[in-house]
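TA notes, week 10

Several of you asked for a full example with nothing omitted. So below is the full record: structure tokens for the whole chain, then the designed sequence directly under it. When grading your own attempts, check the secondary structure regions first.
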């Protein structure tokens, strides 16, 4: 078995959306030929602007979004060809934490029942064992047993996110997809939840795919960082490599907006224009419409991946020795 918990190869995810008065459908190219490995026990962060495909990627991994083509292997098994019992096992091992905890908490259910539901569906534990798991898990997330008698609306945003985390943990998963888990919370609460996730990673021996647009949270939490742009990973490296030796012009622009994190006092790089629509992807390098270093080749050809170090990769023609 490899060191990778998850291996994604040449993944494409596309969905249809209606446009204009006549309601014609158009294809949204949300994830484009994306390949990425996630090592056991690491926190891999995926960073990028809103609309770059981060959430669609997470949903494709947890089978909430259909892939058009490509492969995702979890523990060496292709999740797209799993049979019913393999899928049931996969769903126990892989859990997701959403930005808005309301999406995983039923407002009409008491917290005890919310935590009990996945255990009833996915395990053969008896009532006694289920109760013990629920008590242990809720206490691990920093809440007391009394809260189990209450409904979601009786909690603050931070407490609700703790409950959503507990719900993700009751099945003792191996892999957590966390999609902007703190961005809806007050800044003072964000640090508490981030520290909780860090603690739980050690206690439960977890692997994380952590999606965020907040580079300071990523720097604090992640072991490696993947920078995503229009559905592609355009740079990947250890956290220090990305923050202190970024190579892609887009990564440099993202980081120039947070000089307090990198200590880089060079002028802020302001990108021209908005993120192009994933319904109308630019040819060649997808970043060429905003790149200050764009060359003729960038408009025609897709840059291949270049290796900077054994752990640091970038897709940009500036790093092709042939040019
Ligand atoms: Fe810019 Fe060209 Fe590199 Fe794309 S390949 S990031 S357009 S220099």
């Amino acid at each position: 078995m490899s060191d990778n918990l998850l291996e994604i190869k040449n993944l494409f995810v596309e969905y249809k959306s209606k446009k204009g008065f006549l309601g014609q459908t158009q294809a949204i190219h949300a994830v484009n030929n994306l390949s990425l490995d996630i090592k056991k026990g690491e926190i891999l962060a995926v960073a990028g602007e809103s609309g770059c495909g981060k959430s669609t990627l997470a949903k494709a991994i947890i089978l909430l979004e259909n892939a058009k083509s490509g492969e995702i292997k979890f523990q060496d098994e292709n999740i797209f060809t799993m049979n019913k019992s393999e899928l049931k096992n996969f769903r126990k091992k892989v859990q997701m934490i959403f930005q808005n905890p309301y999406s995983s908490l039923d407002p009409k259910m008491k917290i005890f029942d919310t935590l009990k539901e996945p255990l009833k569906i996915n395990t053969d534990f008896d009532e006694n064992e289920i109760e013990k798991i629920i008590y242990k898990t809720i206490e691990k997330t920093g809440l007391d047993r009394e809260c189990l008698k209450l409904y979601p609306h009786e909690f603050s945003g931070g407490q609700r996110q703790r409950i959503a985390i507990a719900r993700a943990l009751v099945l003792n998963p191996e892999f957590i997809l966390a999609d902007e888990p703190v961005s809806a919370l007050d800044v003072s609460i964000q640090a508490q939840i981030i520290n909780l996730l860090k603690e739980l990673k050690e206690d439960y021996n977890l692997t994380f795919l952590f999606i965020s647009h907040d580079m300071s949270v990523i720097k604090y939490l992640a072991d490696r960082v993947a920078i995503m742009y229009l559905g592609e990973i355009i740079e990947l490296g250890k956290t220090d490599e990305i923050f202190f030796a970024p190579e892609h012009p887009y990564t440099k622009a993202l980081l120039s907006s947070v000089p307090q994190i990198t200590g880089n006092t060079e002028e802020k790089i302001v990108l021209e224009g908005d993120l192009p629509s994933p319904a109308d992807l630019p040819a060649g390098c997808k970043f060429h419409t905003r790149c200050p270093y764009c060359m003729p080749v960038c408009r025609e050809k897709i840059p291949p991946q270049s290796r900077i170090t054994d752990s640091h990769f970038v897709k940009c023609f500036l790093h092709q020795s042939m040019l």
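The CA atoms of residues 210 and 308 lie 24 Å apart. Use that as a sanity check on your answer.
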